[in-house]
Specification:
Layout (H helix, E strand, L loop, with lengths): L17 E2 L10 E9 L5 E8 L2 E4 L5 E15 L5 E4 L3 E4 L5 E16 L1
Antiparallel strand pairs: 1-2, 2-3, 3-8, 4-8, 5-6, 5-7, 5-8
């Protein structure tokens, strides 16, 4: 199989900003995605995601790997301690991981959701 390159450049359109599904308080968190696509022959999707500062509940039930391109914040798993992240960090969420995101400065990440 030939490798698949997924490139985000300045001309790549993001979706319009929209509110997250489960906000926690103010300000209302806005997100947008680009290049969200299914991978051929896989039960997985990948893309780029951006988020404004604020707090919200994680809505993805599948396993997810993310690489933080820019920004910073923390994720607090239900019943656990906060995990801080910033530009250059990678995060892995096992399937059914629940918790709260707190974005302190605008985040851009790449993601791979494994179905």
């Amino acid at each position: 199989m030939t490798p698949l390159r997924i490139r985000l450049d300045d001309a790549t359109p993001f979706t319009p900003a929209s509110p997250v599904g489960a906000p926690v308080g103010e300000p209302l968190v806005l997100t947008r995605t680009a290049l969200h696509q299914e991978l051929p022959g896989q039960r997985a999707v990948t893309g780029f995601w951006e988020c404004s500062p604020g707090r919200f509940r994680r809505q993805v039930v599948e396993a997810e790997y993310s690489y933080i391109v820019s920004g910073e914040g923390s994720f607090t798993p239900d019943g656990g301690e906060p995990i801080d992240f910033r530009e250059g960090d990678a995060l892995y969420f096992a399937a059914n991981t629940q918790g709260t995101w707190e974005v302190r400065s605008p985040v851009r990440k790449t993601y791979l959701i494994l179905g």
